[in-house]
Amino acid sequence: IDAPISVSQEGMVYFTDRLSDDLRQKRREQLLAVTEDDVKYAAITYLKQHETKRDYSIAIIGEENEEIEKNNEYNVYRMKIDEAKES
């Protein structure tokens, strides 16, 4: 959040996100004010409850992997890409 940006990047941030310097600074201060307890609370509230309910999905897109294929928790679907559409 504190990486230096050029003047043109500053203008682009304002143009695309409509964030003034004041709003950007406020967001920065809020992010830096997050505590370890805040992160733990968010994880328990928004992530852990879903883990036990199993009402979520995981998608992995990439090369074939024997470990994943052997794991019965995953359904592996192969995507067929029409080579004619690629070119």
From TrEMBL:
Name of protein: 9597_t:CDS:1
Organism: Acaulospora morrowiae
UniProt-recorded Gene Ontology molecular function terms: metal ion binding
Xref: InterPro entries: Metalloenz_LuxS/M16
Organism placement in taxonomy: Eukaryota, Fungi, Fungi incertae sedis, Mucoromycota, Glomeromycotina
